């Protein structure tokens, strides 16, 4: 790739990751959340993989790391969903009007979902580039 493209990608990559993480962490209060944020973060890694090559992108996040992280996040997501479905009504009373009890749980579900989407799309991009 050209020097201009490499320089632009070097400057844009941190901002792409930052915007994606902002959408993930702010998605419980505004439209957006786990899927768009995870997609934006993964597109930043895809941009690095296309411009600089797969070896440089794997120095940032290796394929094995993405697999392990996806498995851990999947287990966390299952635990959170089981907690939300069965345990939370006994722990936190939900009869209060206009209560804001669901914000931490929705935030944690957004973060777990965003990391899951990010890892899955990074693995898909790496596999497509390697082929």
Topology diagram in text:
Blueprint lengths: L2 H24 L7 H19 L1 H7 L2 H29 L11 H28 L1
Explained architecture:
There is one protein chain. By secondary structure, the protein is mostly helical. It has one domain (3-130). Helices cover 82% and strands 0% of the residues. The protein is built from 5 helices and no strands. The protein has helices at residues 3-26, 34-52, 54-60, 63-91, 103-130. Helix 4 packs antiparallel against helix 5 (103-130). It is elongated, with a radius of gyration of 18 Å. The model has no long low-confidence stretch (mean pLDDT 84).
Observed structural traits:
131 residues, mainly alpha, 5 helices, 82% helix, 0% strand
Which shape, going by the Cα principal axes?
Answer: elongated
Topology pattern, helix = H, strand = E: HHHHH
Summarize the amount of helix as a percent range: over 70%
Question: In percent, how much strand structure appears in the residues?
Answer: under 5%
Briefly note the structural class of the backbone. mainly alpha
* Rounded mean pLDDT score: 84
Q: For the record, give the distance between the C-alpha atoms at the N and C termini, rounded to a whole number.
A: 19 Å
Low-confidence stretches: none
Radius of gyration: 18 Å
Extended strand count: 0
The tally of domains stands at: 1
Summarize the structure.
The chain has 131 residues and is mainly alpha-helical.
């Amino acid at each position: 790739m050209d020097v201009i493209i490499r320089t632009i990608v070097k400057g844009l990559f941190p901002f792409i990751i930052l915007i994606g993480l902002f959408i993930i962490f702010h998605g419980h209060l505004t439209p957006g959340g786990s899927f768009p944020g995870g997609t934006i973060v993964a597109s930043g890694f895809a941009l690095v993989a296309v411009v600089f090559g797969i070896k440089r992108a794997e120095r940032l996040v290796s394929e094995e790391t993405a697999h392990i992280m996806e498995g851990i996040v999947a287990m966390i997501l299952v635990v959170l969903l089981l907690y939300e479905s069965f345990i939370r009504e006994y722990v936190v009373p939900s009869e209060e009007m206009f209560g804001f009890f669901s914000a931490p749980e929705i935030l944690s579900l957004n973060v777990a979902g965003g990391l899951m989407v990010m890892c899955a799309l990074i693995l898909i991009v790496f596999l497509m580039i390697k082929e």
